[in-house]
Amino acid sequence: MSIIHGNDSNLIEKSIEITKSTETRLVDASLTYDYFPKGEKDIWGEQVDYRPTNSWNEKLSDVSVTEIVESQMINTVSPTILASELFEIMKPSYDDSQDLEENDIHHSVRFGHSFIINVTSHEGQFETSGKSDSHIQTNTSKASLNMLTRSCSEYYARNGILVNSVDTGWVSSALPAYRAPPLTDLDAAFRVLHPILSGSFKYGKLYKNYKEVDW
């Protein structure tokens, strides 16, 4: 993406100024003991965050540049690098002399396939209602992760690697909610493992509640 607006040097200086100001805002908040009491954890073992607002309910213009980049690094860049760098060692090595039973050819695990499961969420779906102007950095990064699955799955499948996305459902909440999340970490783990444990040969799919859903 390119932006042309008058003096380019002034634009660069302004961009740097904005970046520094958002980073300063994030650091100032993190040093406020009232918001982040030392040693106090939530039920998921993470540092308690008592800020009245955070990136989950802030508008895009209020979210720090640091967190925008972090979201992309965690949800998009890192999975993309891993899928790329691990491709060769994940390709199955089939042995013509391998003794396969009849049932093995109908079960992806026993047949020797490898698997990549990209853990996504409701925020990354296009075919869903309820999109808001909050946590846009999460929406875009999860949508990018879904595109990784859709884009690489065909080629990877031809090389014995089945790539799918799984939406674990509501497992945790970044803000106090009107009720506790209905699913546990164990529920989420079973959903992530479902495309593998089921022995399915499908790829390039999005699963939610153990079923294929629209992207």
Short description:
With 215 residues, the chain is α/β, with parallel strands linked by helices. 41% of the residues lie in helices and 9% in strands. Helix 6 links the parallel strand 2 and strand 3.
How would you explain this protein's 3D organization?
Helix 2 packs parallel to helix 5. The protein has 215 residues and is of the alpha/beta class. Strands 1-2-3-4 form a 4-stranded mixed β-sheet, with helices on both faces. The protein is built from 6 helices and 4 strands; from the N terminus they run H-H-H-H-E-H-E-H-E-E. The chain has a domain of 149 residues: 3-Layer(aba) Sandwich (Rossmann fold), CATH 3.40.50.720. The N terminus is likely disordered.
Q: Give the CATH topology of the domain at 65-213.
A: Rossmann fold
Total E-strand runs: 4
- What is the share of helical residues? 40-55%
Any idea what the shape is?
globular
Report the mean per-residue pLDDT as an integer: 81
Extract low-pLDDT stretches. 1-7
Enumerate the strands of the largest sheet in spatial order, edge to edge or round the barrel.
1-2-3-4
InterPro entries: Fungal_SecMetab_SDRs, NAD(P)-bd_dom_sf
GO molecular function: oxidoreductase activity
